[in-house]
Amino acid sequence: MYKYRQFGDKFVLSIDNHQPIAATIAEFCKEKNILGGAVYGIGAVNEVTLRFLDPATLKYVDKTFNEQMEIANLTGNISQKNGQVYLHLHVTLGRRDYTCVGGHLLEAKINGACELVVEHFDGPAPGRYQDSETGLNLYEL
Ligand code: FE
Predict the structure, then answer these.
(1) 38 CA to middle of ligand 1, Å?
(2) Integer Cα distance of 133 and 25 in angstroms
(3) Using the 8-state DSSP alphabet, how is residue 58 labeled?
(4) How much distance in Å is there from the Cα of 68 to the middle of ligand 1?
(5) Which of 48, 57, 138, 140 could link 127 by a cystine bridge, Cβ 3.0 to 4.6 Å?
(6) pLDDT tens track for 24-67
(7) Residue 135 — pLDDT band, cuts 50, 70, 90?
(8) Which range of residues forms the domain containing residue 128?
(9) 50 CA distance to ligand 1 centroid (A)?
(10) Does the predicted model carry a pTM greater than 0.85?
(11) Which CATH number fits the domain that encloses residue 55?
(12) What's the CA-to-centroid distance between 106 and ligand 1, angstroms?
């Protein structure tokens, strides 16, 4: 479902067309035992679900976009929660009219390509804790 090549503590990762990006990054991290790191890259998608957290209500609002868009940027971090890979991904997506939508990425289906760099941090993997004020799962460092 993906191809990769290792360069020191970094991996160049090319995910196959029509695959889900977030699930595939998680699968790759699991295969390589990466529980702490960073991910960034570009690509193209035609189905994306973004999530917005309303800080007033601490409620999530999810929205799915079914259109062809460029991943102008995908940036995220890799940590662990209860020993499992925990991804936090954000994305900026370019539309046909060159405007952008963006936000917290839940999942996206590739339509074209997705080329990423995954960095593996040395040392103990950072964890997560639920912050009562923000409702967010913050880094435990
Ligand atoms: Fe987020």
Answers:
(1) 14
(2) 29
(3) T
(4) 22
(5) 140
(6) 999 999 999 999 999 999 999 999 999 999 989 989 999 999 99
(7) confident
(8) 2-140
(9) 9
(10) yes
(11) 3.30.1330.80
(12) 9
